[in-house]
Automatic annotation (TrEMBL), chain A:
It comes from the Bacteria. Residues 83-114 have a biased composition (Low complexity). Residues 83-122, 151-178 are annotated as: Disordered. Keywords: Membrane, Transmembrane, Transmembrane helix. It comes from Nocardioides agri. This is Uncharacterized protein. The chain crosses the membrane at residues 61-78.
From TrEMBL, chain B:
SUPFAM superfamilies: Sigma2 domain of RNA polymerase sigma factors (SSF88946), Sigma3 and sigma4 domains of RNA polymerase sigma factors (SSF88659). Gene3D superfamilies: 1.10.1740.10, Winged helix-like DNA-binding domain superfamily/Winged helix DNA-binding domain. The lineage of its organism: Bacteria, Bacillati, Actinomycetota, Actinomycetes, Propionibacteriales. It comes from the Bacteria. It comes from Nocardioides agri. The keyword ATP-binding does not apply. Residues 205-224 have a biased composition (Pro residues). Residues 24-88 form the RNA polymerase sigma-70 region domain. This is RNA polymerase sigma factor SigM. NCBIfam families: PRK09643.1, sigma70-ECF. Residues 134-184 form the RNA polymerase sigma factor 70 region 4 type domain. Belongs to the sigma-70 factor family. ECF subfamily.
Amino acid sequence: MNDPDDAVRRLLAEARHAEPLPDDVAARLDDVLADLRAEGPPPAVVDLAAARRRRTRLRNGLVAAAAVVLVGFGISRVDLSGMSTDSSDAGGSADSAARESAAAPAAPSPLDGDAQAEGQLDGQGLASLGPVVRLRSDRLEQQVQRLVAASAAGSDQGRSADEVDECPAPSGPGRSLAATYDGAPAVLVLRPPAGGVRVADVYLCGESTPVRSVSVPVG
Amino acid sequence: MSERTDRELLAAHVAGDRDAFGVLFTRHRDRMWAVALRTMGNHEDAADGLQDGMIAAYRRASSYRGDAAVTTWLHRVVVNACLDRLRAGKVRRADPLPDDLDERSGRGSLVAADPSGTPDPADVAVRHERRGVVLDALATLPPEQRAALVLVDMEGYPVAEAAVMLDCPVGTVKSRCSRGRARLAELLAPLLDAERDADDVPARNPVPPAPVSPGDPPRGPPVS
């Protein structure tokens, strides 16, 4: 008697693709590889532990900053209850931060809300510097596609990663944008278009190898 | 001069050898193409997935730690690139693949030829149709189950190696394969039944040899 499992396995084995890479795909990959070669050697290995420590320090600093904001907010609440304190400055700072959050650029984005100002002090360390591209791993390709389309239409989005001291842009050609990737501080590098596609690399801050690369068609 | 090993090529690439990665990728790209094609379900998406994987492998070469074979690592990068695309819904509608028999019948590695070198057209048609049915059913599985079946049942990788490629425990690969096969058994029930029926047909008795015609006239009773 036949075991259905074995029968399915046999059918799958028969349906295996045993042909070489089609010529058109091979030619396309060769083109992309030539572009990659032109970029130079791949990034070197980084000390991941050091990068992790760096991110931890950054995160700790932000937690401390958030705590200051919360304390200031708390003191100003005490103020409102009638107790006399000298908390007006602190309260003012908190209000100012809140205003900055509220006033953070909310212009229509080609990312439909995915790229927007990080004004919520959500621990990404980029809040005070302007808008960053907020990327999500499950939507990365659509997001990059829209960014590339916006870029082609002359509508630049995001802030250059050069402005983010704690997250320097990786080397190599292309436009670097300050970003978050699933909430983690990152840099998005849009490589120059080549062979009808544009490669986008996402680097987590402090790392020199991309955590994710996608290619999207241009034109 | 002897060929450089995969590890040597990858190390050379990381060290700045501009041609090493191309040699390495070309060495394995046919098999990675097969995995990408069966995982993605169509030519265009497979090409996109393989390209994404190639770019990622090129850039992340320095992250290779050497605890698995280079080819396992390459497959892992490509499979992840394909799954990323599938999860992101960035795929075209999968059509039954006309990629094999029609497109490349001239190269002929899939079509079993008879000893005389001429495939039986009826056999070819049956195989083609059966393959289409199987691939259609495979396309309905969740991407993770599909990828596990492609690696284990189609490509024949050991479960442990597939687990490295899929970046999950061995038990997870086993359960994905098991669930996937069970689902396929349902979807392919008519095909499996037909095969079982064919197997159950009792073998015919061998054709008896033709009667030997006597060369001599029948002998009569002994003459007394």
